[in-house]
Design a protein that fits this description.
single chain, alpha+beta, 12 helices, globular
């Protein structure tokens, strides 16, 4: 992925997170909200035909208000779908429904989302809430972890993106197992095997350095049965930068693809803590700068906007509670000027601290005049 496409993908995901948050708050009085997912490569006419059929069925709903809201949402859905000559590159998600908070009033709105990653699910759903799980899964790829399972027989390397394990490579060892030889021969064989083991560790280490770039992963988790993994981690088989990325060494029973799944299951606490730490460290940095070099901190919408326009922002921390148009504007400006963007929610202590600073704060490259 190029720097430019990576930038666009980050912007799209930040905005998607905001839309999902807003849609998740909405509730219908009855089963009246429509969610439609069109997967990558699917003929959009097939979806149009399906919604037309659902509209015919909805006209038979007995309750007048529910019938009016469902048929209105389906008609809006059809109008929107017919604007597309073909399914967008990564698929399409559309949500429609009457969001009026007053009984008897109609305010049918539509949200169209062209995701930055391929949609794999085809779905029509009518419910009291919008169905958002397929889009939420795409947000989970923000943080990437390296996974390594190993013993003296084999090793498997993979990436963890969200809930998805992406295998990278499988390595097989030439280190022999247990043997029965006595006397000096036993000592000679033992030295030979230990030498082969070190060569095996070096091979794993070289492949780990090749596969896991320290600036591209949030952390590395190592697992395996027995003491082999500890011998590997304690030894000088990986670069110092990669060793610093090790979050945990876990005892597991397998070293194949099942072992990768087991490693993830046993590391849930570490993974959650690591993700939260990104937020925590960013906010702590802002607060420390406020205490020591406050001239290099901008806080509040107006001051941060001015700093962005001057190209003075190094890193911006923005609350998802910020008004949507302002959120999108500041995020766009941040990426245009090369500023790093971190979003926080108001469900954490760090998010509440950013809210107290005006819902957005920034670390500056230089002091504003």
């Amino acid at each position: 992925m190029t720097d430019e496409s990576d930038k666009k993908d980050k912007i799209a995901k930040l905005k998607l997170r905001r839309i999902i948050r807003d849609l998740s708050k909405k509730r219908a009085r009855h089963t009246e909200f429509i969610s439609v997912y069109v997967p990558t490569g699917y003929n959009i006419q097939g979806i149009i035909d399906q919604i037309s059929s659902e509209l015919g069925t909805a006209r038979n709903i007995k309750t007048t208000s529910t019938r009016k809201n469902v048929t209105g949402a389906l008609e809006k859905m059809l109008q929107t779908l017919r604007l597309y000559k073909k399914t967008p590159e990564h698929g399409l998600a559309i949500f429609t429904g009457n969001i009026s908070e007053r009984e008897g009033q109609t305010d049918i709105q539509v949200w169209e989302i062209e995701p930055s990653e391929d949609l794999r699910v085809k779905m029509y759903k009518c419910d009291q809430v919008f169905y958002l799980e397929p889009l939420m899964e795409q947000l989970e790829t923000k943080i990437v972890y390296g996974l390594l399972v190993m013993d003296r027989r084999e090793a498997n390397l993979a990436l963890l993106k969200g809930k998805h394990i992406i295998p990278l490579m499988k390595l097989d060892s030439m280190v022999p197992g247990k043997f029965r030889v006595g006397g000096q021969s036993a000592q000679r064989f033992a030295r030979t095997i230990e030498g082969m083991a070190k060569d095996w560790y070096k091979k794993i280490g070289d492949k780990a350095v090749e596969s896991f770039k320290p600036n591209e992963i949030a952390g590395l988790i190592v697992g395996g049965p027995g003491p082999t993994k500890e011998d590997f981690v304690k030894g000088d088989f990986m670069s110092t930068d990669l060793k610093k990325k090790i979050l945990a060494v876990k005892n597991i029973g397998y070293t194949d693809e099942y072992g990768l799944k087991e490693l993830v299951e046993r590391s849930e606490d570490i993974l959650k803590e690591s993700e939260a730490m990104l937020e925590k460290k960013a906010v702590e940095k802002i607060l420390m700068m406020l205490a020591t070099r406050k001239e290099l901190v901008a806080k509040g919408e107006d001051v941060v906007r001015r700093a962005l326009e001057m190209g003075a922002v190094s890193e911006i921390i923005i609350s998802e509670e910020l008004e949507e148009k302002v959120f999108d504007e500041l995020v766009d400006k941040a990426y245009e000027t090369g500023a790093n963007v971190i979003t926080v929610t108001n469900k954490t202590q760090e998010g509440k601290q950013i809210e107290s600073l005006g819902k957005v704060a920034a670390i500056l490259r230089y002091a504003l005049a």
